[in-house]
Amino acid sequence: MDAELKNNILKTGTSLVGIVCKDGVILAADRKMTLGGQIIAHKNFQKIYRINDYLLVSIAGQVSDAQMGLKIIAAQLRLKELKSKKRLTIKEAANFIASLYFQAIRQPSMIPSIVGSLVAGVNEDGKAELYNISPDGAIKIIENYDANGSGMMFIWGLLERQYKKDITIQEGVNLAVEAIKSSSERDAASGSGIDVYTLNKEGIKQVVKQEIVSEYKDKD
Fold first, then answer.
1. Selected catalytic residue, list 14, 34, 89, 198
2. Taken in order 74, 2, 39, 26, is the CA torsion positive or negative?
3. Over its length of 220 residues, how does the chain's per-residue pLDDT go in tens digits?
4. C-alpha to C-alpha distance for 73 and 49, rounded to whole angstroms
5. Burial degree of 75 (CB within 10 A; 0-12, 13-18, 19+)
6. Is residue 14 annotated as a catalytic residue, yes or no?
């Protein structure tokens, strides 16, 4: 099962990046959506979703399952807050998302749900956290950096060499952009643009919103 899931997630046509900084967390993604990793279906597809004022979820996998899952996540987390009359911690939110993925992939279906996510959020005390949630529901807190999707093997090498402890938010943004550019250069299923979000005690902010526009030029 694990080998099959890893093989499927490599075919999702996505590059997701998460970077933990000393003063917050960075979440970044490309914009290309493909069919089977071969046909470009969309060139301006958003892969990072704002669930509420303190939580972001990025997606790699089947779009229909991801979109339906995001609606359920937003609604259920809001209900949990209303019932408990308090704001959830990022750990609680991440564990709920992991349980949702765990249940979804184990439901008998002709088309199994294959969705993985990097989840980032800010707690009430201002501490930002990053989690990796696998399609099988496995959850892991990230202490430094991580990547997901078909472009992750190109991203990991770059981050391993350039990430440093106590990196600042601005340094993290620059590194995330370079990571997405790196995967876009070599992974045929990634590219078309870059979205980068920062999360810290001041909240969530989109700091990079770029689209790649094709241009033909005469060769000298």
1. 14
2. positive
3. 455 444 444 445 688 999 999 999 999 998 877 666 566 766 767 889 999 999 999 988 888 888 899 999 999 999 999 999 999 999 999 999 999 999 888 777 766 677 889 999 999 999 999 999 998 899 999 999 999 888 888 899 899 999 998 999 999 999 999 999 887 776 655 667 899 999 999 999 999 887 776 677 787 7
4. 11
5. exposed
6. yes
In what side-by-side order are the strands of the sheet with 16-21?
Answer: 145-148, 16-21, 24-30, 193-200, 203-211
For the entire predicted model, the pTM comes to 0.86
Question: What is the distance between the terminal CA atoms of the chain, rounded to a whole angstrom?
Answer: 53
The DSSP annotation for 103-139 comes to HHHTS--SS---EEEEEEEE-TTS-EEEEEE-TTS-E
Q: From CA 63, how far away is CA 198, in angstroms rounded? A: 24
Tokens of 34: 């493909």
Q: Does domain 2-193 have CATH number 1.20.140.10?
A: no
> Which amino acid makes up residue 65?
D
Give the containing element (helix H, strand E) for 111.
none
| Nearest C-alpha neighbor of 19 from the set 98, 122, 129 | 129
Instruction: State how far the Cα of 73 lies from the Cα of 92, in Å rounded to an integer.
Output: 12
Domain boundaries, the chain: 2-193
Taking every pair of Cα atoms in the chain, the longest distance, rounded to a whole number of angstroms, is 67
Amino acid symbol at 165: K
